[in-house]
Design goal:
There is one protein chain. This protein is α/β, with parallel strands linked by helices. It folds into two domains: 197 residues, 3-Layer(aba) Sandwich (D-Maltodextrin-Binding Protein, domain 2), CATH 3.40.190; 205 residues, Periplasmic binding protein-like II (D-Maltodextrin-Binding Protein, domain 2). It is built from 21 helices and 14 strands. A five-stranded mixed β-sheet has the order 2-1-3-13-6. Strands 7, 8, 9, 10 and 12 form a five-stranded mixed β-sheet that branches. A two-stranded antiparallel ribbon has the order 4-5. 45% of the residues are buried.
Amino acid sequence: MRRTHGTVAVAVSTALLLAGCGGGSSDQSDDGRTRIDFAIHVANPQDQEPAFAAVVDAFEAQNPDIDVNLIGKEQSEHIRSIKMQSQSGNLPDMFWMLQASASELNDAGALLDLSDFLNANPDIASSLRPNMVEAFEDDSVQYGLPYQPLVTGLFYNLALFEENGLEVPETFDDLVAASEVFSAKGITTIAQGAKDPYSVWAFLTMLSRFGYFEKIEAILAGDEAFDNSDFVRFYEKIDLLRETGSFPQNVTTQSYFQAVESFTGGQAAMLDSGTWDVKKIEDSPVGQDVGFWWGPTFSDGVGEQNISSVVPSAPIVVNAQVAESEAKLAAIEKFLAFYYGPDGIQLMVDNQVPAMTDVDVSVDETEHPVFASVMEQVSSPAYTSQPAQPDLVVSEAVANAMYDSIYGVINGTYDPQQAAVVVQKAIDNER
């Protein structure tokens, strides 16, 4: 979810970072093993991040001379802790961090350049999806590598489509036609919850089909405007879905979590979500009937239409002071090689986390049918991923305006032109 994967803005003072010196953890655990202190953004990694925990456990079993000491804290507390540690020069050896703050840490010289690791592991470097690496590059410095991929789109209830004589849509016109049928029968087409305004992942990908990444840099620089004809046309599509009754009648007062419940309870044909909901969907009454879709193509879209969304979430970064310890540096490089290697990737897939590399993985379709559908789409050569989630390449204020604009049209608060202007005003306010 976006709030989990990168929207909390925490400013890290470059001056304070530069003031820090020394620090870092000791090289060895009490039992003599080389210790890696790894700070993560959840309080209980075993329960809250089982895929990551499984990789750590397997790595330690394979490398009994290395101790990965997980330091788990709830995300906001974790970020505050990293900020405080950066001020004193006592950052953990490795840690999860929001991209904007990681970039500031890199600017302050606090992070290890991982280019040498990638150069020493060409198989990993070539197997990682390009956008997973490019997201954390700054000039020639590789200041981070992806923690996990962020995969979002539309889950669909195939049984509902078949019961109503419909095929799963491919184009926007198909989606509108299906929506008209569902609406006439009192069935919600797309489960959404405006009380959690960030929950518009599939619509953000649709925005990419109207030239978002071709325009956004010029828009932020003031050379173009967000309220351009292409983006207004994108909002017009959302408005048409509203007019055909695609969204829940209580979308304004419904939360994202209630939207999930309506889908898993069989009251909605589609759900705008991501892979974090796979287990919940598979365990629900509709679990055997659910597939995954990247969303519609548009005949009047801009540029490539077969766009998927397999994008990097927050990065894993390494404290630059690790380079002062040969043993610790070697242990961390060994961990990274395992994490991004075929064994680590397969362990994550076994825990329903999509692969961020192009290595072959196996999925038990009988036990995990929904995740198998996701992986089929992730690996489809017919689609190319957008480079990042559109809201993650702008400031938090602009991202919030984007959410407001989309839900504003869904709720009928804004017309398409007004919605685009809302975002442009947020951009103007930052200049």
